Amino acid sequence: MKKRALGFWEIWNMSFGFLGIQFGFALQGGFMSRIFQTLGAEKDAIPLLWIAAPLTGLLVQPIIGYMSDRTWSPKWGRRRPYFLVGAVLSSIALFFMPHSPALWMAAGFLWILDASINVSMEPFRALVADKLPESQRSYGFVVQTLIIGIGTWIASNLPWMVSQLGVSNSADLGVVPMSVKVAFAIGAFVFMASILYTVFTTTEYPPEDMEEFEREKAERNKFIPNILNNIGNMPLTMKKLGVIQFFSWFAFFTMWSLANPALTEHVYKAPAPIENSYDMTVVAQAAKFNVENTNFQEASNSVGSAMGIYGLSSMAFALLLTLYTSKKNINRKYVHLFSLIVGGLGFLGMYYATPDTLLYCFILVGVAWGSILSMPYAMLSSSVDPKKMGVIMGIFNMFIVIPQIIAALGGINYVSSLLGEEAINAMTVAGISLMIAGLCNLLITDKNAIKYQPELTEIHD
Length: 461
Description:
- This protein has 19 helices and no strands.
- With 461 residues, the chain is mostly helical.
- It has one domain: Up-down Bundle (Growth Hormone, Chain: A).
- The longest helix is centred in the middle third of the chain and has 43 residues, at 283-325.
- Residues 452-461 have low confidence and may be disordered.
- The chain crosses the membrane at residues 12-36, 48-68, 80-97, 103-121, 141-162, 182-200, 241-259, 303-322, 334-351, 357-379, 391-412, 424-444.
- It is found in: Membrane.
- One of its GO terms (cellular component) is membrane.
- Its main location: membrane.
- Keywords: Membrane, Transmembrane, Transmembrane helix, Transport.
């Protein structure tokens, strides 16, 4: 099927739901470790508490991708039913997450939240490839990244914003501050609203051959052998991209899980107070805890706001790529190589950062993030069978979640311990990992993946 070139606003509408998805991810990535620490988690235990996130991605995304390839409704299309289901479950989990009274409950809500986000996210990746001609693939993924950047910046600043409006940033021992609870409630609303916007403003192409589609649909229950078959026969370019993804996502999982303890301790000099170090029945100790806990919560707000900068810079980077790729070709391989090395330098710079200079480190990290969310998918979509786009995107997610599982099971703690006991060493490990990922782009040799040569097309608004 020859697909028409879409205008900017059509691509914007079909990608707008990612604003909500990124609200969920940014609140999770920026403040989940803070919630864990508030509920009494030791910093060395935090990566393991995060293991729910990659495990659910490993299981959910290939299945959802496979199922969405074999779904069609004249009213709701192929991918949109999954957007809706994921949005409802994610919004519920986001709202209740910060109200968790115990550590195990917060970890359970993280499991539900990440599984639900994955139900929505994978079909969004496939939708770009479904709707756009190959000449607009880079453009489409970059617009998606632009929206992700907006969502990351706003969501990462939400606790700080609501605290500026007078919402309390202090709380009793083991209780999450009201500023965080309000921020997560706002995130739940935005998640649902943005997904609904995309669902009601976007249409999808029907299957090209309905008879063949119905035959494939009838074999839906054979998804496990079919997924395993696709894993065994994945293209060489996909395997090479997988190496890049491994080191990239090891770095970012390290940031999401350990940036809060690392930066509140090393940059802001306000580590989380250890719960069993205080006798709350003694007035002086209770007062000392309240001071140190408030300092930690305020430092956590500052870390969250600084992390939001990487969303803002990824948005700016994506905007530049959007303007460029709407008219001209880019060399995806070298754009990604350069971007990842720049991000690695940002992580390395955190060791020397002050509260005033930390934002510059996250600006550099944002360049890498903007590229990670667009270039690998653009390269992949140009080298796989369009009929299998959903399941391929789901399988590709394995290269995202496996490094996170390894990191959560002790990989971060082990590698960073080689550099010393300080939590900030985890950010150094993230920097080294991201620079290795950048150099691995030299493995990519497929010309279609590197730089697609489109036919001239007219873009209609």
